[in-house]
Amino acid sequence: MNKAVKILAVTLVFFSLAIGSLIAPFGDTAQAASAFQARVTVSKAKVYTGPGKKYRSIGTLYRNTSVTVKGSKGSWYKISFKGKTRYIYNKNAKKIVRAKFTSYKAYVKSYSLKIRNKASSKYKTIRTVYMNTKITVIGQKNGYAYIYSGGKRGYVQKKWLKSTISSYKAYVTASTLNMRKGPGTKYKHVKYLHKRYKVTVSGYSGGWYRVKYGNKTGFVKAQYIKKGTPPVASVAPAPQPAPQPAPAPAQSQPAPEPQPAASAQPGASAPQPVQLDYSPVANFIAYIGYDQLKMYQGPDSNSGVVTTLREKTAVTIIGQNGNWMKVRSSDGKEGFIYKDNLTTDLNRFNPPSGAYGIDISHYQNENNGGIIDFNAIKNSGNSFVIVKATEGETQSTVKQKNTQGETSDQQWTDYTFSSNAKKATEVGLKVHAYHFFRANSVNDAIIEADHFADILNAAIANGANIDYVFVDVETTNGIQNDIKTNLSNNTNAFLKEMRARGFNKLGIYSGLSFYKSYINSSLIEQPQGNPRLLVWIARYRGQDTNNGTGADFQVDIWQYSSNGSVNGINGAVDLNVSYYDPNAV
Q1: Compositional bias (Low complexity) at which positions (predicted)?
Q2: Smallest Cα–Cα separation from 87: which of 55, 128, 111?
C-alpha cells in the first residue's frame, strides 16, 4: 500500500470516530444497567456534564439526597439532574437497598387496641380490635406495625402484639346462648350455643368472651361461660354391707366362751360409726377464688360461718358434698366452700398485660417500721407508684398524724407522702399522687384542691417528680339530693382548680360500681389541648382477673387487687396495671 493510501485510511478512521463521538459522546460507551435509586453519602457531591472532572461542573448534590442512576461509565454514575443526563463520581453515592418485609401473623395482647390510618396516636381510628384477635403484620414504621385485619389496613403500636394466642377450654352454663360477631348485642347473630357445649375462649372485651365452637368464632356473654370441662353426672356408690366374721375353723376342742370387752357396761348399746357430711377425696391444694370469701360449717350458705378467707389463700381440699368442697385452712379450720369459688390455677389472678404498679399510703410505711424499699419494688417488675398525699380539707373528717404519732387539728396530709414520692423518684419509678375527696360543695372542693396543690408543690420542691394527680372519689360525702349531679359538679370544680394551680395531668379514681352510679362523666370538663383525663378504677375480680376489668368504658389504670404482695413492703398492698399509653390512646 502506497503512502497516499495509508494516509487516506488513517484519515477515514479518525473521521468515523469523530462522527461517532458527536452522535453519542458518552451514552453508547456507558455500561448498560437497570436504573436504581442511590443516596449521596458525602457532604457535597459535584455534578458534571461528562464522566470526569475535566468536564464542566454544573451543580452540587448534598448528603442523603436521593438520585436515579441510569447507568455507569468507568468510575462515574450516569444520573438524571434537572431533567438532563449528568454524572457524579460513584464513590460519592451508594445504592439504596430496601429490605423486603416478610408478613407474619400476630395476636392482640391488650384487651382493646385501636387501628389508626397513620403511624401516630393523633390520627383517625379506623376500628378497634380486641384481645387475641388474629391480625397480619405487613409492614412497620417508627414502633408501629402496619397490619391487615377484617378487611382494613392501618397502624397499631407493635408492643401490643404477641406471636402466640392465649386460650383455654370452657363450656356453656346457660340453656341457650347467643353467639354474636362482636362484643355486644348490637352485633349480628352467628349461632346458638346450648348448655354443656365445649368452647375455646381466646379473648375478652367488656363482659364478652371471644370463643370458638366448631368452625364458628364469635362473642358470647362471659357470665355464661365457665373454664374447664362440663361436670359429669356422678352416682353415689351403693352402701357396702358391714363385714361379717369369717366362720371359725373346725377344731377338735370347743372354742372358749367369748369374754365381754373391759369397757362394756350392763345394758350399754354398741358404738355407732361416725357419719361424715362429705365424701373423702385424695387431698389436693386449691386457692380461694374471691376476696373475703366465707367458709361455712355445712354444705349450705345458710349454715354458720367458720371463717373468712382472702383471695389466693391456699387451702387443702379433703372432700366433696355435691357442689360444695370440704376444705381445711392452714390454721386447721375446716368447713365448706362452693366449688366455683375455688381454683387450682393461679394464673387466673393475673390481669391482661400492661405496665404494673402499686398505690401506697402511710399504712405501708407503718407495716415496714417506717421504711419502704422502692428499689425492691422496681426490681419486682413495677414501673410506677401512686402515693397518697392528702385527704379532705379539715380535721372535721380525719385526724392528722405526724412522725411522732401525734394528732393535730390541721388540714390532713399523709406525713409519709413527700419522702415516699422523693425516694420513688430517685430509683426511677414514675410517681403519681392522689387526694381522698371529702367535699360536699363546690366551695369545699376548691379548698381541698388548693391544699392538695400546696402539698404537691412542696414535694416537688423536695425533689419529687410528680406525673399524674388523681382525685379519689368513693364516698357521697353526705350529699342528700341528686347525688350523682352534685358529686360530679364538685369533682369537676376540684379538677378545674387543680388546672388553675398548674396541674394538667389529672385523673379520677373510684370503684367500678360507685363510678357508674355516682359519677356523670358528661359533667366532667376536658379542655382541648390538655392531656386526657385518666380513669383509674378499682374492681377486684379474684379468679376472673385474667378476663379484664369487665367495664363497658375505657379504663386507663385498673386496681385489680387489694390483697397483693410485693418485694419491699410487708403486708397487703393494692396492685394496679396501667393500659394508658400517650401514643396508643
Answers
A1: 249-273
A2: 55
Q: Which long-range contacts (CB under 8 A, 24 or more apart) does 278-282 make?
A: 278/318, 278/319, 278/320, 278/321, 278/324, 278/326, 278/336, 279/236, 279/319, 279/320, 279/321, 280/318, 280/319, 281/317, 281/318, 281/319, 281/320
Angle at 232 between CA 229 and CA 237, to 5 degrees: 145
C-alpha to C-alpha distances, 220 to 50, 87, 206, 291, nearest whole angstrom: 73, 67, 11, 26
User: How many helices (DSSP H) and strands (DSSP E) are in the chain?
Assistant: 7, 39
Closest CA to 377 of 417, 431, 415, 413: 431
Mean pLDDT, the chain, as a whole number? 82
SS3 readout for 444-458: HHHHHHHHHHHHHHH
DSSP H helices, 353-416, are 362-367, 374-379
Q: Give the CA radius of gyration of the chain.
A: 39
> Contact, 129 vs 111, CB < 8 A?
no
pLDDT tens-place string over residues 218-269: 889 988 999 888 876 443 343 444 444 444 444 444 444 444 444 444 444 5
Q: Is 150 left (phi over 0), alpha (psi -120 to 50) or beta?
A: left
Residue in the structure block whose three cell numbers are 387539728: 409
| Beta strands per DSSP E along 158-271 | 161-162, 168-172, 176-180, 189-194, 198-205, 208-213, 216-221, 225-227
DSSP summary character for residue 566: -
Eight-state DSSP code of residue 523? G
Cell of 551: 367495664
Bridge pairing between strands 57-62 and 44-48: antiparallel
CA distance 447 to 539: 30
Q: How far is CA 333 from the centre of its chain?
A: 37
Task: Output DSSP code: residue 245.
Answer: P
Whole-angstrom CA distances from 394 to 320, 418, 508, 553 are 54, 20, 21, 34
The residues that bridge with 327 in the sheet, in sequence order, are: 317, 335
According to the per-residue pLDDT averaged within each range, which of 109-118, 173-182, 403-412, 437-446 is highest? Answer: 437-446
Q: Which whole number is the average pLDDT over 284-297? A: 93
- The answer to whether the beta carbons of residues 583 and 156 sit under 8 Å apart is no
**Collapsed DSSP state (helix, strand, coil) of residue 174:** coil
pLDDT > 70? residue 324 = yes
* Contact (Cβ atoms closer than 8 angstroms) between residue 75 and residue 90: yes
Structural domains in the chain, sorted by start: 36-95 (2.30.30.40), 104-162 (2.30.30.40), 168-227 (2.30.30.40), 279-347 (2.30.30.40), 350-395+410-578 (3.20.20.80)
Q: Which of 386, 371, 403, 415 is nearest to 556 (CA)?
A: 386
| Cell numbers standing for residue 308 | 373468712
- Predicted TM-score (pTM) of this structure: 0.55
Q: Which helix (H) or strand (E) holds 421?
A: helix 417-426
Best-predicted range by mean pLDDT among 138-147, 285-294, 395-404? 285-294
